[in-house]
Design a protein that fits this description.
Number of domains: 2
Distance between the termini: 66 Å
CATH architecture of the largest domain: 3-Layer(aba) Sandwich
Number of strands: 13
Largest sheet: 7 strands, parallel
CATH class of the largest domain: Alpha Beta
Radius of gyration: 21 Å
Strand content: 15-25%
Order of helices and strands: EHEHEHEHEHEEHHEHEHEHEHEHEH
Length: 329
């Protein structure tokens, strides 16, 4: 019996969950459709993908790459050397792996990998989930063979003939969510009959949202609700300190990162979230009422643009971060 053809796919997406989890979703989708496939991720050393990708069951290699700081800093002086080193290593990975296709979803490592692959003549594809592309994808748009987007009207950033509007890939456990409310709240050790607020600031948390919650958490809990609060690592201690003397402490689950987001969504009655493309796609998928607080420093304020698409149709509430204290609490 003839062996099925072996497919080899290189993937790169990192820095934030908005780049990593779509890449993992795509990889899992490929595995479900191809019987005989090798998938190798390439990430940036020291970044979030070096932890999350192996946890999802895929191998990953790291490049010594970082971004350019927006302010003048000595770190920027090392960028050209890191970029050259990463391009050389990416070229070696591509030559060794001989991929059938190379897919990038954004993040520092996507640039060197897809540039090396395109230069070597391998098929390349990038995914841009946001209404305004990041600097890596804007650069790669010139060399990538196909550009998949979540939004229409991206011709102002990319060559029109390369664009395919696909939407954003969603993790299978969220796309096919099977956990009911009772099971989900039980998983988090919560009252199955109490209204539940889920607060998420993206994969790394959101300092301003966390500060607002910390200052008003007692007021929130006094309304009778319970809270699942993803803080990100930098805000975890602050969040826990804000609850030390709370008489409602047993009604709050605080985590720096939630791996079981399908259960978190299932447990929630309302979601407070940043407005990254993947967060919006997932919240739409699970059909939960949402309050979006866009990150104001996002490039070209693209998170506000993302959220406006829903707010204009009365499908979500949109709050400026500067008014979060007043409008949310």
């Amino acid at each position: 019996m003839k062996e099925p053809e072996k497919y080899k796919i290189l993937m790169s997406g990192g820095g934030t969950g908005g780049h990593i989890f779509p890449a993992i979703a795509i990889a899992n989708g490929i595995k479900s459709r191809l019987e005989n496939v090798d998938i190798l991720f390439v990430g940036a050393k020291g970044r979030m993908e070096m932890e999350k990708v192996p946890q999802a069951g895929f191998p990953i290699e790291g490049l010594n790459i970082s971004g350019i700081q927006r302010r003048l800093t000595l770190k920027n002086l090392t960028f050209p050397f890191k970029l050259l080193d990463s391009l050389l290593k990416a070229r070696r990975i591509v030559k060794r792996f001989q991929p059938n296709a190379v897919v990038g979803t954004g993040g520092y490592a996507s640039g060197p990998l897809l540039k090396a692959a395109a230069n070597a003549g391998f098929p390349t594809l990038i995914l841009e989930q946001n209404s305004y592309p990041g600097i890596t994808n804007r650069w790669l748009g010139k060399v990538a063979g196909v550009i998949c987007t979540a939004y229409e009207g991206m011709e102002k950033y990319f060559p029109a003939e390369k664009i395919v509007v696909t939407g954003s890939p969603i993790r299978k456990n969220i796309r096919e969510m099977k956990t009911n409310v009772s099971e989900a709240r039980g998983f988090f050790g919560m009252d199955e009959n109490r209204k539940t607020l889920l607060i998420i600031g993206g994969s790394q948390g959101a300092r301003r949202i966390n500060e607002a919650v910390a200052q008003h958490v007692e007021q929130l809990l006094a309304t009778g609700i319970q809270i699942i609060w993803q803080t990100g690592k930098p805000s975890l201690d602050m969040a826990e300190r804000s609850l030390l003397n709370s008489k409602f402490r047993n009604r709050v689950v605080v985590k720096d990162f939630i791996y079981e987001m399908d259960k978190a969504y299932a447990a929630a009655d309302v979601v407070v979230s940043r407005a990254g493309a993947i967060a919006i796609a997932e919240i739409i998928q699970v059909n939960k009422p949402a309050v979006f607080i866009p990150l104001p420093s996002a490039a070209e304020d693209h998170q506000t643009r993302n959220a406006m698409a829903l707010a204009r149709k009365n499908a979500a509430l949109l709050i400026d971060e500067k008014n979060a204290f007043r409008d949310l609490f």
